[in-house]
Amino acid sequence: MRPHQLSTFLSHQTLFKDLSLAETQSVAARMEVLEFEDDDEIFAEGQPCDGWYVIVEGEVAIVKSGVGGLDHDLAQLESGEGFGEMGLIDDAPRLATATAVGETTLARLPLGAFRAMMKDEGSVAARIVLAMARVLVQRQRALTAILTDLVDDPETAAPGPREMMSLLLLR
After folding, report:
1. What are the counts of helices (DSSP H) followed by strands (DSSP E) for the chain?
2. What's the start-to-end Cα distance of the chain, in Å?
């Protein structure tokens, strides 16, 4: 994928809606395009953050290891969605494993490029962080609603584990 194609794709995504085309092109120039086959691991739970990802084509499964080695499917993300933002913000290790579902193309903003962008293009970086924060806030609102229902009436209000994860992690 050429840089022009990547910037055109990104400019049509919600995550980049607050950026001008020139600013989106600047971000795209800092990104790497990566290709994955079905079931390829993108990153593993516990690894240090290496960057933020945007799905250009394909899908990504986010899976968390549970107690006793049971894996929990947290999300199935599609084209245009971003993931891996938490590590950019808090420098903590990955909370889950990301795996390609089918042939998948990703654009990655490497951690070093993100930090350079914060220094060199603070306004652009701030608007990208704001887009990431919107996703995190949506997840937090969903979690708050679930926890409120659980506290109010734990027997009738509790969604099943898959429903809960879908509410928390998808969109």
Report:
1. 7, 6
2. 26
Other beta carbons within 10 Å of 152: 9
* SS3 call for 4: helix
Q: How far apart are CA 84 and CA 167, in angstroms?
A: 18
Return the closest-CA partner of residue 171 out of 139, 145, 146.
139
Listed residue (120, 113, 103, 4) closest to 60, CA to CA: 103
The residue extents of the domains of the chain are 3-169
Q: What is the 3-state secondary structure (H, E, C) of 114-169?
A: HHHHHHHCHHHHHHHHHHHHHHHHHHHHHHHHHHHHHHHCHHHHCCCHHHHHHHHH
Helix orientation angle between 111-120 and 21-30, rounded to the nearest 10 degrees: 140
CA-to-CA dists, residue 20 to 9, 31, 37, 123, 124, angstroms: 13, 17, 32, 12, 9
In tens, the pLDDT along 149-170 reads 777 766 665 555 555 555 555 4
Give me the CATH code for the 3-169 domain, please. 2.60.120.10
Q: Length of the chain in residues, anyone?
A: 171
pLDDT digits (tens, 9 = 90+) for 103-129: 999 999 999 999 998 898 878 888 888
Within 10 Å of residue 161's Cβ, how many Cβ atoms? 11
